[in-house]
Specification:
Strand 1 (6-11), helix 1 (17-30) and strand 2 form a beta-alpha-beta unit. This protein has 112 residues and is of the alpha/beta class. Helices cover 35% and strands 21% of the residues. The termini are far apart. It comes from Methanoculleus methanifontis. InterPro entries: DsrEFH-like, Sulphur_relay_DsrE/F-like. This is DsrE/DsrF-like family protein.
């Protein structure tokens, strides 16, 4: 039996948030059972905020099990908190470290 693919999606540009989310939707729909994590840092966190246009894309993905995490280093540097994001968005101490860890664990890396 082939294990389900695990994919980490790197988001560091606000302008690419909608593209990354559409790619994530296509991935989830095309690869049944895929485990997907979207890691946002730098300007990418802005594309996942609660008051942004991308929540309509994020909500159904979260409902399908996609994990969303934002970088705590970035939040501190921008005076943001978890409250600025939908409740299903978690945090990691460092977005870059999270990407490296996931790749070391064998996750496939995607950067739209």
């Amino acid at each position: 039996m082939t294990p389900s693919p695990r994919v980490v999606i790197h988001l560091d540009e606000r302008e690419k948030a909608a593209l990354a989310l559409r790619n994530t939707k296509n991935l989830v729909e095309g690869l049944a059972g895929a485990e997907v994590e979207v890691v946002a840092h730098a300007d990418g966190v802005e594309g996942l905020r609660s008051d942004g246009a991308n929540v309509a894309l994020m909500d159904p993905l979260a409902g399908r099990g996609v994990l969303f995490v934002v970088c705590e280093n970035t939040l501190r540097s921008r005076n943001l908190s978890e409250k600025d994001f939908p409740g299903y968005v978690g945090t990691v101490p460092s977005g870059i470290v999270e990407l490296v860890i996931r790749q070391a664990e064998g996750w496939h890396y995607l950067r739209p």
